[in-house]
Amino acid sequence: MHLFHCPDLASDAVELPPEEAHHALAVLRLRAGDRVGLLDGRGTKALGELIGLAKRSVTARVLERRLLPPERAARIQLAVAPTKQMERFEWFVEKAVEVGVDRIIPIRTERTERSALRHDRLLRVAVAAMKQSQRAWLPEIAPLMPLEALLADAPAQRFFGWCQPGLRSLMAAYRADGDALLAIGPEGDFTEAEAERLRGAGAEGVALGAARLRTETAALAACTWMSLSQQR
Amino acid sequence: MHLFHCPDLASDAVELPPEEAHHALAVLRLRAGDRVGLLDGRGTKALGELIGLAKRSVTARVLERRLLPPERAARIQLAVAPTKQMERFEWFVEKAVEVGVDRIIPIRTERTERSALRHDRLLRVAVAAMKQSQRAWLPEIAPLMPLEALLADAPAQRFFGWCQPGLRSLMAAYRADGDALLAIGPEGDFTEAEAERLRGAGAEGVALGAARLRTETAALAACTWMSLSQQR
Fold it and tell me: Could you tell me if B24 and B115 lie in one domain?
């Protein structure tokens, strides 16, 4: 059954967002009476029946709702400096949502290679990945923010990937029973000054293994470790 | 310093493979006397100096060699049914090499969506990823093989990703101190008969968490878990 993202599933008759409506009409060519799955991204999975199909709008009657609990007991936040190639960052967002993440925060650092980010595109990738992995919860995609703003209200466990010898590994440091934030720097890494600020804010520099990883690879590897650690 | 893959670093003067030579000449426009890094993919990192540059060939004098031990005490083998979209499989190969893997085995299963595979392309992706992550060891990319051939000489730890409730997770089952092989099926998973054959060959069906993951996502998540588990 086809899944659609429908942020508001509260009423009995709901309207699909324009993009989802277009997909249902132009791509899938669904008809009145067709059954569809509806996800609001906030834990609700619903069974719907299409009732009103106009040129650009699709209305569905909600036949039944299920509210699913959050997947993780402990939240996982990944703060990542966007890569020069947008597709690599979008790839990270897709995979992180599939593997399991609660919040993705693009960060601006001294060496970040992008000053702007198409937030709508990242959101679209995240929604597609949520549907692909049949999740009811849509991770938050935060707007691009400076490192400082990131640390304003971070959870107790704070890490940042840091390419230096002698550091404890994330695998040794991360406790799966607590909320955590991990920051991954750009190609070229965080500057010494940024690492100082991160440490000053109570973040621990951790290693992710011996090899030099691309930004998006390191971010996904860390996300995978934290998410799977909670599902042992 | 630019890195090049040069399978034979035994002699004092070595010739770069055609593709690497083209890259050095046409893309990087290197000159005689330039210093380069050379990787044979079998543990040797060498410092070279370019001496002979012809139209299509590049020769380097090997100034010094270092033989690096294998990265992992226990080998990690990933057997994966290639995806319909080749780029998704190439993406998996790139990321798996970055994160750490010893052998990637494309497998033909009943529901595998590709009957043929451009092995040379996968190899090129693996070489690029080895250079990117500055590794001296190039993982083996096996030719596409049927499930049966896979199990012929598999290590003691044998797992396969299996989308069924009640299974132990890979995270609970995998022991980082032993060689392991994990098989990931195609979209649509292994058939019951294939799962039976896998179990018959001593492979344990394991879960990778609650969410439904794409083939390439599941394969990389498993690879990441096993590789990082060895680097705690």
Answer: no
pLDDT tens digits, one per residue of B78-93: 999 999 999 999 999 9
Is the domain of A59 the same as that of A90?
A: no
SS3 state of residue A88: helix
Per-residue model confidence as pLDDT tens digits over B155-185? 999 999 998 889 999 999 999 999 999 999 9
Q: Are residues A118 and A97 in the same domain?
A: yes
Q: Do residue B91 and residue B197 come from a single domain?
A: yes
For residues A62 and A84, state if they share a domain.
no
- Which domain, by its residues, includes A175? 76-229
Inter-chain residue contact B99 with A71, CB threshold 8 Å: no
In this complex, the residue of A91, A133, A208 whose CB is nearest that of residue B213 is A133
Q: Which of A225, A226, A230 to mutate to test the interface with B (most CBs of B within 10 A)?
A: A225
Please name the residues between 141 and 160 in chain B that touch chain A, using a CB distance below 8 Å. none
> CB B169 to CB A229 under 8 A?
no
Under 8 Å between Cβ of B74 and B179: yes
The minimum CA-CA distance between B56 and chain A, rounded to whole Å, is 31
- Domain total of chain A: 2
Q: What pTM value is reported for the model?
A: 0.94
Q: In terms of DSSP H, where are the helices of B39-186?
A: 86-99, 119-132, 147-152, 170-173
Which residues pair with residue A66 across a beta bridge?
A45
